[in-house]
Known about the structure:
Blueprint: H1 8-14, E1 32-35, E2 38-41, E3 57-61, E4 66-69, H2 75-88, E5 93-97, H3 103-106, E6 118-122, H4 125-144, E7 158-160, E8 163-167, E9 172-177, E10 187-191, E11 196-204, H5 215-225, E12 232-237, H6 249-267, H7 272-276, H8 290-305
Parallel strand pairs: 4-5, 5-6, 6-7, 11-12
Antiparallel strand pairs: 1-2, 2-3, 3-4, 8-9, 9-10, 10-11
Amino acid sequence: MIFRVFVLLLLLIVWPEPGVPADNCKHRAEVVEIAAGIYVRPGKHAVVFDSEAVANIGFIVGNRCVAVIDTGGSYSEGQALRCTIRSVTTRPVCFVINTHAHPDHILGNPAFREPGVFYIGHTNLARALALRGTVYLQRAAQQAGRPLGPEHIILPDLSVDGQLRLDLGERVLQLVAHSTAHSDNDLSVYDEKTATLWLSDLLFMEHIPVVDGNLKGWLTLLETLKDKPARRVVPGHGPVQAAWPDAASDTQRYLSTLRDETRERIARGDDLRQAQESVAYGERTRWQLFDSYHKRNIIAAYTELEWED
């Protein structure tokens, strides 16, 4: 079912007053304005929990309010992004959009918790956080050097099952909840005003793709999304923007190679261990963090394809 929901009246009731001074702004996130009113904080290529600022995160400014798209892997990342928003505009944050459940994208959420801010995610996001949130917090606490409690995981106030349209004031965002691909809770954001498609981890560039959902579903989705009339795309990892749909070619090639070579090994009777030593190693020089994530991708592919029709 496709939902076309405008929550403007609700926001007019509960928005905080604009122009509230930023608090505790010792650090600000360095952002790039890739199109009018669209700002991206570039991530760096690193293993999650080994470093901060791993994912591309950012915000979109409308005439009435601001939508944050992912908040980073820690409270400090979220706070730095919040301080940057306050330096760019006096308009209040009205939405925090979580593109999926992975910790490098959502653990900065508490920095934006205040009256009038609505958290939005895929209809499966709450379930994903219930399953993994405790482990994410344990790993993040080790990195932070202090305990983190359940209050650091914020569940969505609005869940998207199908599509949701958000009006930021003369700026409409189209949110789409996708079937299982990179994960089972992927959400994309399309800004109609600038034809910018924010795909987050549905698209990897430079950083090797990570399969945590369904390999065949991801490939099918990318092929479908290529018809989207976007001028630019924001990947979850890699450059802050790229031309669409050309930007999808490397991710599609890697995933297709992973699929095809895994099928070949299964057909000839190789077990998982043998597949892990041979599948898709021709891709090794094309991706950063290949050795950190490739073998687990083979496990995901082998498990998915072993009993396919």
